[in-house]
Every structure is written in C-alpha cells, then in structure tokens.
Amino acid sequence: MFYLNTTGAFLHVMDTSHLIHIVCKHPNIVIQHPELLLGNLGDLDLNQLLKVAAGLDPSRPEVKAILQV
Q1: Which of 29, 30, 41, 63 is the most exposed place for a label (fewest CB within 10 A)?
Q2: Which residue stretches of 1-69 are H helix?
Q3: Domain count, the chain
Q4: In the prediction, which pLDDT does 16 show?
C-alpha cells in the first residue's frame, strides 16, 4: 500500500522513473497533485510518456472512476 501526506512532499523528491511508476499505479495522485506530472512532461522520453498514457488510460476502471467524479 502506498500512503501519501496531503502535500505530496515525498513525491517531489522522487526521481522521474519512480514518480511515473507511482502515478500509473495510483492515478488519483495526478488529480491531487497535477503539477508533479505536468511539470515533468517535457523531460520524459517516449517510453516514459507511453507508460504515463497507459497508466492514465480512461478505459482503466481506476481512471474511469476518477473522471466520473
């Protein structure tokens, strides 16, 4: 289980590959802390962008539930 405080402080010090992994596994983090992903998009390579796209795919039940709120 992954726990995060309300400020997302732990995520701000993660390296990009770990951040992508966490965001893809827990898409609700993007809703709570969009600056984490948006601030790093320009630094991602193609493989990392594809992982983000797959992780935030709206057909995934976890993402669909977030989008319907």
Answers
A1: 41
A2: 9-12, 16-25, 28-32, 34-38, 46-55, 61-67
A3: 1
A4: 82
